[in-house]
Design goal:
This protein is of the alpha/beta class. It has six helices and 14 strands. Helix 4 runs parallel beside helix 5 and helix 5 runs parallel beside helix 6. The structure holds nickel (II) ion (NI) and manganese (II) ion (MN). The site of manganese (II) ion has 7 residues, from helix 1.
């Protein structure tokens, strides 16, 4: 049984399991790095970490077209129900649920979460996914926090997806420290190079990760995948 993670640039991921296709933080139309058009995106579930446009801009379109269910915090799921008539499953920080495809638990993230129309989007979150026996942590947009140690201790991680772009999230130095706290088998950087403001040298960061930690660092090009077997 395999789980395949495909990076669409920024914080946007496709996660394919034998039983479901998940889209995390859908951002295709206005994402200069997106390797495919939003019309080509297929999903059964859409996971949304917080209310900012670069994490949910295409959720309504994909949800309406494909009938994908929204998984997010209570405020964001309610907003999609009210504004767009989409079905969803609300969770909140610390809570998890066993879906037909696997488990999703919400973690803390230090960031904002105002929705595109100015409504409050609850607390921003990260995702802890347990799929086919593999554990994936998507930190989403966040600053560094010491409880990352707790996440890695409680749930030994196969893969961690970490922002390295700086300015809006952790930068390379803090993200390197996050790897030391989380101790994942594999770390993949994200939320960089979308715009000049968050340009980073991911390959240089990968060398630091491999010199200073036990984790393997995989740098993906947009449209490329990492397979967990
Ligand atoms: Ni954000
Ligand atoms: Mn963002």
């Amino acid at each position: 049984m395999t789980v395949e993670l495909t990076w669409y640039g920024h914080a946007c991921w496709g996660v394919e399991t034998p039983s479901a296709r998940l889209i995390i933080d859908p951002f295709f139309s206005d994402n200069p790095k997106a390797p495919i058009k939003v019309d080509e995106v297929q999903g059964d579930y859409i996971l949304i970490s917080h209310g900012h446009f670069d994490h949910l801009a295409d959720a309504a379109l994909i949800g309406r077209r494909s009938g994908a269910k929204i998984i997010s915090n209570f405020e964001i799921v309610s907003w999609f129900q009210e504004q767009h008539g989409l079905e969803g499953h609300p969770l909140h920080v610390g809570g998890g649920h066993d879906f037909p495809f696997g488990r999703v638990q919400l973690t803390i993230a230090h960031h904002g979460s105002t929705l595109p129309d100015g409504k409050p989007g609850g607390n921003p979150v990260g995702f802890l996914l347990r799929l086919e026996g593999k554990v994936i942590y998507d930190a989403a947009d966040t600053g560094l926090f010491y409880d990352m140690r707790l996440i890695g201790e409680r749930h030994p991680l196969d893969v961690a997806l970490l922002p390295i772009g700086d300015n809006f999230t952790m930068g390379p130095d803090d993200a390197l420290y996050a790897v030391k706290l989380l101790e994942p088998k594999v770390v993949i950087p994200m939320h960089y190079d979308t715009w000049e403001l968050i340009a980073q040298d991911a390959r240089a960061w990968a060398r630091r990760v491999e010199e200073e930690t036990q984790s393997q660092c995989v740098v993906l090009e947009p449209g490329h995948s990492h397979r967990l077997t």
